[in-house]
Write a structure and sequence with these properties.
The longest helix has 31 residues, at 104-134. Helix 4 (104-134) links the parallel strand 4 (87-90) and strand 5. By secondary structure, the chain is α/β, with parallel strands linked by helices. It starts with 8 loop residues before the first strand and ends in a 12-residue tail after the last helix. Helix content is 46%, strand content 14%. Strands 3-2-1-4-5-6-7 form a seven-stranded parallel sheet, sandwiched between helices. Helix 1 crosses helix 6, helix 3 runs parallel beside helix 4 (104-134) and helix 4 runs parallel beside helix 5 (155-174). It has one domain (9-251): 3-Layer(aba) Sandwich (Rossmann fold), CATH 3.40.50. It is globular, with a radius of gyration of 18 Å.
C-alpha cells in the first residue's frame, strides 16, 4: 500500500555541510519533507540522493544568507513550490577570528554579522506572517555557547551569537500568543568543518549526528532555549558567573581563532 506524502515541512539553511546536513538527515528520518537552502546546491543534492532521500520529499534552493535578496528569494521559492514550512531552522553561519587593529578585519566582521544575524532575520521574514495567520510554526535560531561571554580573538563570532540569543528572545516575545514558537539552540563544540581549524582545546566535542538528535528532540518539545551538550550549558553558567578579573585571567594567552587573512 503506498504511503501518503508527508505533510510536515522543515526548511534548513546552511544545509551543505556540518550541523545543517545532520539536522536535514534527522528531520528526514522523522518523516518530514525538506526544503534545503545552500550556496553549494549541486553538492547538497548529491548528498541527499547518496543518502537515499526520496526526490519527492526534498527540494534544494540556491541562497546566500549574507545577501538579503538572495535568501528571501529562496524562501519565497519554497513557499511557491512546497508551501509554508512547519519548522524553519536558521542554521547557516560563519566563524572567523578578527583583530580590530586591522582595517580589513572590519569587512570580515561585517560579513559575519550579515551572515549570522541579518541572514537569520531574512530567513524568518518570509514565513512570520504566514505562520501567524495559520496559528502554528516553529522558528529555530542556532546560537552558540560562544555567545555567552566574549572570548579574545573571537569578537565578531561571540558578538554575533550573543545577538542571535537576544534577537530570538525578542522575537519569542513578539510572537507570544500567536501559536508560533521561537527556539534558541546553542551548540557547544561540534565536529564540523567550522571547528576543524580551531587551535585550542574543545571540551565535550560532539559528532553532528548526536547534536542533531538532541536538537531535534528539543525543537519538537518546543523548549525556548537549550544548550547542547548539557555539560557545556554548565560550563557557560560558570563562565557567566565568574568576575571579570578571573574571567580575563583565565583566558589570557589562550590561542585565538584563525583570521581570514594571513597574520
Amino acid at each position: 500500500m503506498q504511503q501518503d506524502t508527508p505533510t510536515q515541512l522543515a526548511l534548513i539553511t546552511g544545509a551543505s555541510s556540518g550541523i545543517g546536513q545532520a539536522l536535514a538527515a534527522r528531520y528526514y528520518a522523522a518523516g518530514y519533507r525538506l526544503a534545503l537552502i545552500a550556496r553549494r546546491t549541486s553538492e547538497t543534492k548529491s548528498w541527499a540522493t547518496q543518502h537515499g532521500m526520496d526526490t519527492d520529499r526534498f527540494q534544494v534552493y540556491s541562497g546566500d544568507v549574507a545577501i538579503v535578496d538572495s535568501i528571501v528569494a529562496a524562501c519565497q521559492a519554497c513557499l511557491e513550490q512546497q508551501g509554508l514550512p512547519d519548522v524553519v531552522v536558521a542554521n547557516a553561519g560563519i566563524s572567523l577570528g578578527v583583530d580590530t587593529a586591522v582595517r580589513t578585519d572590519l569587512e570580515v566582521m561585517s560579513r559575519v554579522f550579515a551572515t549570522n544575524n541579518i541572514g537569520m532575520a531574512a530567513t524568518f521574514h518570509p514565513f512570520v506572517q504566514g505562520m501567524r495567520d495559520r496559528g502554528s510554526g516553529t522558528l529555530v535560531g542556532i546560537g552558540s555557547v560562544a555567545g555567552i561571554r566574549g572570548l579574545p580573538g573571537h569578537g565578531a563570532y561571540c558578538a554575533s551569537k550573543a545577538a542571535v540569543i537576544a534577537y530570538c528572545e525578542s522575537l519569542r516575545g513578539e510572537l507570544r500568543g500567536a501559536g508560533v514558537k521561537v527556539v534558541t539552540i546553542c551548540p557547544g563544540y561540534i565536529d564540523t568543518p567550522l571547528t576543524s581549524k580551531n587551535r585550542y582545546s574543545m571540551p565535550f566535542l560532539m559528532q553532528p549526528e548526536a547534536f542533531a538528535a538532541q536538537a531535534f528532540a528539543a525543537i519538537e518539545a518546543g523548549v525556548s532555549y537549550r544548550v547542547i551538550p548539557w555539560q557545556m550549558g554548565l560550563v557557560a553558567k560558570v563562565l557567566r558567573l565568574l568576575p571579570n578579573s578571573l574571567f580575563d585571567r583565565f583566558f589570557a594567552g589562550r590561542p585565538r581563532k584563525h583570521r581570514q587573512v594571513a597574520e
